[in-house]
Amino acid sequence: xxxxxxxxxxxxxxxxxxxxxxxxxxxxxxxxxxxxxxxxxxxxxxxxxxxxxxxxxxxxxxxxxxxxxxxxxxxxxxxxxxxxxxxxxxxxxxxxxxxxxxxxxxxxxxxxxxxxxxxxxxxxxxxxxxxxxxxxxxxxxxxxxxxxxxxxxxxxxxxxxxxxxxxxxxxxxxxxxxxxxxxxxxxxxxxxxxxxxxxxxxxxxxxxxxxxxxxxxxxxxxxxxxxxxxxxxxxxxxxxxxxxxxxxxxxxxxxxxxxxxxxxxxxxxxxxxxxxxxxxxxxxxxxxxxxxxxxxxxxxxxxxxxxxxxxxxxxxxxxxxxxxxxxxxxxxxxxxxxxxxxxxxxxxxxxxxxxxxxx
Length: 359
What we know:
alpha+beta; 15 strands; globular; 11 helices; four-stranded antiparallel β-sheet; about 350 residues
């Protein structure tokens, strides 16, 4: 028996098979223990990296900083936006249709889709009814990935998704206010952070989960995972009721877990809704890393960006789809992963600014 979202009411939500396979291989490590410390802000991470590289920081206003070395300006940053991207790259990060157009011109794989003004709902529904696959609806520009709904198969779901996407649009004057309708593509969601010619960090973004050990009850395993998440420097900032989610989706909390079964404990991958990350920097195939770099370079003047990918296989470029290239994406998750190695993205950004300043 399933509900309208496709969740199995007796055994819990059906996880994306690509995610399940990935977690069985890479999700068994114990989450990183940060010793109770809290996460540094993006500004603090960049400031620390600048000082480690012997550069001087000057605060201009609020969170805006200028970095100098001797008499030369190295660069600057405001929160996690640095001086590395061009004006065109910044425009593309505020308009997904523009970013996709740049990618398409380079022959790079993007999901089929169309964009619509927010008051053209009926036109968008007509487009949706012509699709042969489930749909995704999302804003052309949003904050923290809000407002995206996947796996839409009915008109009612589409209308609800349209309302959610419209409400999540960025309010910036230069943000694209349109909504996107795309074919739903299944895969593992990976964010690769590219600086210059290299992927300096990559995270698989997954729902909160546990893997059954065959001896404890699910309640016991959920309790352990929830405690670890609450203590995490970054994810612990965002409350998530894993018990409530398990009950809501019909998971048998008081039954012994099935050995090696992956249990989904959050509705999605967004860390504000319970999602976590697994560092995959050393597991990505070289062709996939080349694809991420090519996506960054497809945006004129883009010297550093987060590239969002959907992957059937973490080691192969076959079937890979590029979702977005974002120069405003946060990088703190790479410094504070749930599982795997910490990656010093801030240092890579500072060193790239210095390299550019030398011509």
